[in-house]
Amino acid sequence: MIAHIRLLRGIAAGMALLATATGLWAQTPTPLLVPVEQPFDFYSTGEYREKLPRPETLLGYEPGEAYAQYGAFLEVLETYAHSDRVRVFPTGATNERRPMHVVAISSAKNLRRLDDIKAANQRLADGRAELSDREIDRLIAKQPIIVWLGYNIHGDEAAGTEAAIRVLYELVASESKTVKAWLDDVVVIMNPCQNPDGRERFVVWANAHGLGRPERFAYEKENPWNVQGRYNHYYFDLNRDMIPTSQVESRNSGAAFLEWLPQVAADHHGETKEFFFPPAALPINPNLPRESLERWLDVFGRGNAAAFDQQGWMYYVRDYFDIFYAGYWDSWPALQGATGMTYETSGGGKRGFNYLRDDETIMTLRSAIAKHFTASLATIATAAAHREARLRDFREHFVSAVKAGREADLQQVWIPAGTDPHRTRELVRALRRSGVEVQTTTAVATLPTATNYFGVNTAEITMPVGTFVVDMAQPKGHVARALLEPDTAIDDAFIERQQEKMKRNRDRGENAPDDDYEFYDVTAWTMPLAYDVEAYQVGAAVNFSGDVIGEVVAPSVAAPPRATAAYVIRPGTEGAVRLALDLLEEGYRVATAVRSMDVGGVAYPRGSLVVRIERNPTSLHERIGELARRHRIEVGVANTAFTESGITGIGSESTFALTAPKVLVATGDGVIPSSYGALHYLFEETYGLEFVPVAVDTLGSIDLRKFNVVVLPAGSPHHYGRLLGDGGKSNLKTWVSQGGTLICLGWATEFAIDADTGWTSIKRVGADDDDDAKADDADGEDEPDAEPLPVPGAMMRTMVDHDHFLSFGYEQDELPFLVNSDTFFTASETGFNVLKFPQENIRLAGYVWPDNTERLIGGTAAVVDEPVGRGHIILFSDEPGYRAWWHATTRMLMNAILYAPGLQNQTGGYSR
Ligand SMILES: [Zn+2]
């Protein structure tokens, strides 16, 4: 079997065989001529050090015949680590305990003074330091340029790490003058595998199932649900994570990046039809120094082009890879002062070991590796050639950031601890992980005027001691502004092009396919809105006394004194939810007051947790003290049930027992992997909530009575319907009516409103049975769109209904909501619309389509509870917890899990 595989791949790799010549496609009518493509020679630069074994010797096969498993890769790394041109730095481990590294490669001479190089680099990056021209000249004269080469962030774009092995060997073993000269001028920081867990899932699968068949329909091109090598352990796309940096791989790589602060960064992906490298497409993040960025992308792009032209290889630039969203591994490095670039190779990964192009020539994994290898070396060569000029512009990046911060219309952002200090600290930690300098105030300060993130101006706001302040006049000002500005401007030319497409699409015939829009990702990522954290923008910097912070430490919380009646905890914080879940899980009895209540003269909001002494064992006192300290949550003490005012106290009729949640999460085929993954991460890492993942098609055949919560992550409504079948649907419906809580997220909501389930009265806006939209259709000539256009991740204003348990802990009237789809839902006529979009003034940040999005979404529902029998069907039109970055509605999801199982017949009537 193995011999067969080797033979097939060897032939295809070596000769770029024609389909007809192999006899595999006998039906091909016309004989085609043999192409000229020759196998790439990885050893063309001259002599190599004999002591260092070549990759094929270490691996036991030619790279490209199979994928290197992570263990094999680590052995390669260990062997080359003995070279005097290499230093290996561990950066941490993945969720599945695979070690991660960055590898510094340079001349032995440079490696001996690596600490000095690093220190000089940081000195250049200190935009506040007033360096004389002479001092800058002196620093730059001796300073190598630092080039970051990242590989395989998407694990199934698996040519990456294979190429890293080739590049590593070339740099450590080559005795050619060219390579040695590069290493005198360049320190390469290689991140050889940015996603070891995802890559390993893919590699094991591809080695097992890859026969080397080139047919596009071959099984080996499918990458099934449980492989999904693109993502990390939690099915996160690591090339979107650099805003929250929630994932451990992002933190490992991000910290190393900030330590080395490279001038050039190339992130190696695959597989496009032909190789891609910059210049990038529009839009370009407006916080990037535009002139310098475009100039350098052009220089590096032309450097790669020359190397590819020499081989006669195809490639393209611009097209659709933009540099707008701030959390990619090209835009984020660029905001940090580097020339940040994405490279996409053609071949390998999901295209398999061999892939049939549309002209019936074959694209191979080996050629994909050769192209990444060539682009990596060309990047090093270009960096070496432009070392001095690039270093000067690198310094200018940080100097201009300080200057821009002093002059811009957003000079400071003030972030008080707010209603959930834990979440506020999480936001500040994320800023710190992007290298943003944050201060904390040491005295009360007053802001003469400031604007919150809902656009409300206020005068004379007092900020307490301990408020976090981000001053934009700092070396990392470009990053700070990219993460904190209220809305990010998109290039006019880009927007005009999308709107023209919209008009063309509207005028097209029914059967003519629509022209795709070019939004590559979400168009808003404003962190205070995403985290739902109180924050204030200040136009003209305010003086204050404060300290620059390092690590963000949570203040410790004391255990409560011993209560005689009950312990009481306010809702609205992650800590409160965690504490309640822990107590319930351990068997303690926890209740909630569904109205605001009076506890010994102290007011507690609706949804407060009541843990009564008489209903619990004496171990409660010690346990709640431990949990209060662990979750850093203040626990109140009630020594009497008597209320000083109002109608509700710890002993009143409006107090109901909660039930420990037993949670099932649907998974596997039909479910969007990243939606399931975000829940996995949220439950396991953030809330410590146990759950049972169950395949969708198993849901119909198991006894659901073991659970009181079922979550359907975002997924294809069609697949949900088909995989569940009639049995699954009726099983779920019976279970809900008997008291179960079914939670549908995003696209899964569309499945729930499928007419034949009869679960809810809401409808999809623009659907055939949406009467309002139909009325629009009847208007005649210039009818407006009845169907929503896809919203590329914009933040919208919603109105909070305080009459429901889902909004416990949300005492504000407005809440930001992430809209990232083309599916809007009419308000429910039978249940509770807990979050609803207002009729106007809806957009907070990001792109919405003129005369479409806001008109169609106004008055529709974002979060709905449909009471069914004794249970609930809770619908979220978009995903809470999206990318572990969208926090604003996450507690609402947790409210559903914590409160709904206990409040089966007690849905509403909880006004403040
Ligand atoms: Zn990729």
From TrEMBL:
<dbReference type="GO" id="GO:0006508">
    <property type="term" value="P:proteolysis"/>
</dbReference>
<keyword id="KW-0732">Signal</keyword>
<keyword id="KW-0862">Zinc</keyword>
<feature type="compositionally biased region" description="Acidic residues">
    <location>
        <begin position="768"/>
        <end position="786"/>
    </location>
</feature>
<protein>
    <submittedName>
        <fullName>M14 family zinc carboxypeptidase</fullName>
    </submittedName>
</protein>
<keyword id="KW-0645">Protease</keyword>
<dbReference type="GO" id="GO:0005615">
    <property type="term" value="C:extracellular space"/>
</dbReference>
<dbReference type="InterPro" id="IPR029062">
    <property type="entry name" value="Class_I_gatase-like"/>
</dbReference>
<dbReference type="InterPro" id="IPR000834">
    <property type="entry name" value="Peptidase_M14"/>
</dbReference>
<feature type="signal peptide">
    <location>
        <begin position="1"/>
        <end position="26"/>
    </location>
</feature>
<keyword id="KW-0121">Carboxypeptidase</keyword>
<dbReference type="GO" id="GO:0008270">
    <property type="term" value="F:zinc ion binding"/>
</dbReference>
<dbReference type="Pfam" id="PF00246">
    <property type="entry name" value="Peptidase_M14"/>
</dbReference>
<comment type="similarity">
    <text>Belongs to the peptidase M14 family.</text>
</comment>
<dbReference type="GO" id="GO:0004181">
    <property type="term" value="F:metallocarboxypeptidase activity"/>
</dbReference>
<feature type="domain" description="Peptidase M14">
    <location>
        <begin position="67"/>
        <end position="367"/>
    </location>
</feature>
<feature type="region of interest" description="Disordered">
    <location>
        <begin position="764"/>
        <end position="791"/>
    </location>
</feature>
<keyword id="KW-0378">Hydrolase</keyword>
<keyword id="KW-0482">Metalloprotease</keyword>
